[in-house]
Amino acid sequence: MGDLAKIFKAYDIRGVVPGELDEAAAEAVGAAFTEVLGATAVVVAHDMRPSSVPLSAAFARGVTGRGADVVDAGLGSTDLLYYASGSLGLPGAMFTASHNPARYNGMKLCRAGAVPVGADTGLIEVRDRAAEILASAAGPAAGGAGAQGKVARRDLLAGYAAHLRGLVDLSDSRPLKVVVDAGNGMGGHTVPAVLDGLPVELTPLYFELDGTFPNHEANPLEPDNLRDLQKAVLDKGADLGLAFDGDADRCWVIDERGESVSPSAVTALVAVRELARHPGATVIHNLITSKAVPEIIAEHGGVPVRTRVGHSYIKAEMARTGAVFGGEHSAHYYFRDFWYADSGMLAALHVLAALGEQRRPLSELLGRYSRYAASGEINSTVSDQAAAMARVRAAFAGREGASVDELDGLTVSGPDWWFNLRPSNTEPLLRLNTEAADDQLMAVVRDEVLAVVRSAS
User: Fold this and answer.
1) Is 98 a catalytic residue?
2) Do residues 430 and 356 both lie within one domain?
3) Which of 73, 92, 183, 337 is the most exposed place for a label (fewest CB within 10 A)?
4) Count of domains in the chain?
5) Which domain of life does the UniProt lineage start with (predicted)?
6) What DSSP assignment string belongs to 218-238?
């Protein structure tokens, strides 16, 4: 068993199986999670990776060894686990490594009501207690005073699907042709259940559950992983395409031309729909979403609130403000009606409803939400992140009309452009996002920042 400190991340647990994460560690985490939360029952779900069943079973042994019961939801997406935690009022554990390669696995933990457990909200305590349990002579079984907990299998897929369909009305939608690429991930399990009975002609791509990912990585943020979907949308004359990551909590949209739709445009579209139902509500967006997002929120009577990148920040700010919706540049979408948790499938239903209730193609419908030219995220390998950031700050901070903030990395804004430069927490990288009034200006700003970043790397 490897070092627990290596696999416990800011938001979840993730590592190579079995070298970094094995059944003994999973059992210890189950016991520690139960102790730290004082849980009497925990709901557990897992993805399609070959290691997920034994790891989730080991975690369940750790829970029951501490006298708590386990509701075993079996195969599920991460948002199905959030549904389970929210609807049952139980803390939960999802076994998945999301879009990571097949040799990885991990856990996403939450309190009852799908409240996230991260480094600032209990994950460190779970890590430290799990390390103590592993170091003890008897291992995870030690300390399990009282009766052994029980494991009860419960199929929650139908309830999850019905809950999502109840949140978005497609009764007036015209019939739509939709291609969905599940990437051999959990979308192949959940998407058919959710779309069943809706006015959708579904063309499935890679719906076979296979944690070795034989066709392509289940990561829609990488353009190469969208090629098959884009081709299928054009070949089928489909109205749109949807791509899900491995645990199906993220959804990427392709329009009828086979072109990628910016998650910022999807955020704006869903925000407008939610504000129509909840006038004057707050909507969260992270600082890398397009400037069009807060503009459109305000134009529709909403209150835009800007946050750092990362689901723990989004969820905390949504809970603090009572926000109705939140969106990120990474295609994570969060809903107050879904326990402030993220659901790519729920965002997809909103896109389908918006498209189906009118006659225009998706590209035209979303045109009003795409106002600026964006670079997308560009990574640069650097030997000294702090020094490179300082060079960029010095180069841009004093310019006339420029403003600087450091909410998350370095954001510099001019009259008709802005960029954000953030360090990676796990790699020697700086991540640049640039946006401007047009492609030419965006390219000028982008190239100038990159030249400074890479000047001494």
Assistant:
1) yes
2) no
3) 337
4) 4
5) Bacteria
6) S-TTSGGGGHHHHHHHHHHT-
